[in-house]
Design a protein that fits this description.
Elements: E1 5-10, H1 12-19, H2 34-40, E2 42-49, H3 58-77, E3 81-83, H4 87-96, E4 99-106, H5 115-123, E5 126-130, H6 153-165, E6 168-170, H7 176-185, E7 190-195, H8 209-217, E8 222-224, H9 228-231, H10 240-254, E9 259-261, H11 281-290, H12 295-316
Parallel strand pairs: 1-2, 2-4, 3-4, 4-5, 5-6, 6-7, 7-8, 8-9
Bound molecules: zinc ion.
């Protein structure tokens, strides 16, 4: 049987909106197409809500809502997929064999620093939140920000609102000062959904061993991505063995309870040879197994660790995270 996978980061619906593609009708254009997800054994997919920086203000909020709408529409039309925002919905999807789709906002630009917008998006299914993308926004500084100061007062407030709402804080893309602020302020597990190990490839988007260890100490998960620019031999290219090296290093630093996968399919311009799309997870597990990673560890890193964190967040979601339903008909 194909090993169950929980992938913490793919850009399928953001790409759909950005490139004007339909996830179902234009399936061959997607790395994380429904066929590839099925073949790869993916059972839970976090789909990013990512709005490019050139769109800001209300336009960014509108674009994020558009992505949520496109995701809802595509999942409804696809066979064997469900959006989930409660533990009950998650368990029901898994029991039925459907693939569960959760949303993760990549960069809080669309929130405009407004906690009520986070509360709204949480109710629409956003369960992961990266406070920044690569640059600065109302919440703080990303990993490529100039003269970074870390989180703004609004960003600091947003950490608490995310925890109240049962939204997992995602440290991918944060500047080191913002990273420190999030880890210091948070009381819940903090994750990094998609990055590589800085010890193996020194680029600003990758996490240092110290950062990976602090994610683990918070109870969170470090998700290794599949972008050659983060895990390749020389940033320009790489293969499955390079990805294996990053996963093994992460396991060494974080321990088997705190490593997962967030391949970033449909969000990366180049691919690792041997790990080109979401159908390739079994090849990764075979390669890890050949390097001596045991079955229990593989189960945790493929699925169990992210499930623990998501469940913990959904347990805290007010109203258990139920999607808004029709009103009761009263005036
Ligand atoms: Zn990203």
């Amino acid at each position: 049987m194909t090993r169950a996978v929980f992938d913490a980061h793919a850009d399928l619906f953001s790409k759909s909106v950005e490139d004007g593609l339909d996830w179902i009708d234009d399936a061959p254009r997607f790395d994380a197409s429904s066929d590839n997800l099925l073949r790869g054994g993916v059972r839970v997919q976090v789909a990013s809500v990512y709005v490019p920086m050139r769109k800001d203000g209300e336009e960014a909020t509108a674009e994020a809502l558009r992505i949520v709408g496109v995701a809802a529409d595509a999942v409804r039309r696809a066979r064997g997929f469900r959006r989930v925002n409660t533990i009950g919905q998650l368990d029901a999807a898994l029991a039925s064999g459907d693939i569960a789709v959760v949303l993760g906002m990549e960069g809080a630009g669309p929130l405009l620093g407004d906690p009520d917008r986070l509360r709204l998006f949480a109710r629409l299914g956003v369960r992961f939140l990266g406070l920044t993308h690569n640059h600065a926004n109302a919440c703080g500084d990303g990993c490529f920000a100039k003269d970074p100061v870390g989180l703004t007062p609004r960003g600091r407030a947003m950490v608490h609102v995310a925890e109240e709402e049962g939204v997992v804080l995602d440290a991918a893309h944060l500047n080191p000062r913002s990273f420190d602020d999030v880890l210091e302020l948070s009381t819940r597990p903090v994750v990094c959904t998609h990055a590589g190990c800085r010890a193996l490839l020194d680029v600003p988007r990758n996490l240092t061993d110290d950062q990976i260890a602090r994610i683990a100490a918070s109870g969170g998960v470090f998700g290794v991505d599949g972008f050659p620019g983060h895990v390749g031999k020389d940033r320009a290219r790489g293969d499955l063995d390079d990805l294996v090296a990053h996963v093994l290093h992460a396991l060494e630093i974080a321990g088997e309870d705190h490593v997962g996968l967030g391949a970033d399919f449909d969000g990366i311009p180049t691919k690792l040879s041997g790990f080109e799309d979401a159908s390739r997870y079994p090849a990764l597990f075979s390669a890890l197994s050949a390097r001596g990673v045991g079955e229990t560890t593989l189960d945790k890193l493929a699925f169990g660790n992210w499930m623990r964190v998501l469940r913990g967040a959904l347990e805290r979601a007010p109203g258990n995270g139920s999607f808004p339903t029709r009103d009761c008909g009263q005036p």
